[in-house]
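Why run this: before we spend reagent on co-expression, it is cheaper to look at a predicted model of the complex and decide which construct boundaries make sense. The entries below are exactly what would go into the expression plan.
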Amino acid sequence: TQLLEQSPQFLSIQEGENLTVYCNSSSVFSSLQWYRQEPGEGPVLLVTVVTGGEVKKLKRLTFQFGDARKDSSLHITAAQPGDTGLYLCAGDDGWGKLQFGAGTQVVVTP
Amino acid sequence: DTGVSQDPRHKITKRGQNVTFRCDPISEHNRLYWYRQTLGQGPEFLTYFQNEAQLEKSRLLSDRFSAERPKGSFSTLEIQRTEQGDSAMYLCASSSGGGAEAFFGQGTRLTVV
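The model came back. Tokens follow.
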């Protein structure tokens, strides 16, 4: 059972379009991490957000942590085929143990 | 340091056999975590170590599973009497402490036939 809900489960867009992925929970986390995972590989850390209301930018990716530290969003501007992957959010309970969502599969076609 | 390393990358075994996986964390990291990921799901926590001490085990970790980190460096995860339901990706991660960012290895894909 995933306590972190990610939506949508699947997203297919054309190159150049924008997209937003959501991560919601009823629990408060000390921090929240976003990972991207390729098939057959382990998750690769993209960003960690810690402070409620925090916004972090990583090139074309914008991450936001909700004011109450229960939800987060990932926005990709002008998506490229290289952005294709499974995007996972994970809440940290403060002791380093991560609670993951089920992920959003993003497919960007040329 | 090249990051977290897991071995083997793939393992196919017959039901009832025992398997062991190894994880080498980032050298200065004292925390080591094991997760399991099944198709269509995010990783689920199994257990973690602070140095050589195993601090928490998930209820997912049945009696057939055992993990060790004898010298506080590499760790092994053993599954005895494997079942088809054990088929999954087993992921190892390490961090420099509680609340610090965790970095994952490439995982070991287990298939039980």
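The radius of gyration of chain B is 13 Å. The first strand of chain B starts at residue 5 and ends at 7. Bring this page to Monday's planning discussion.
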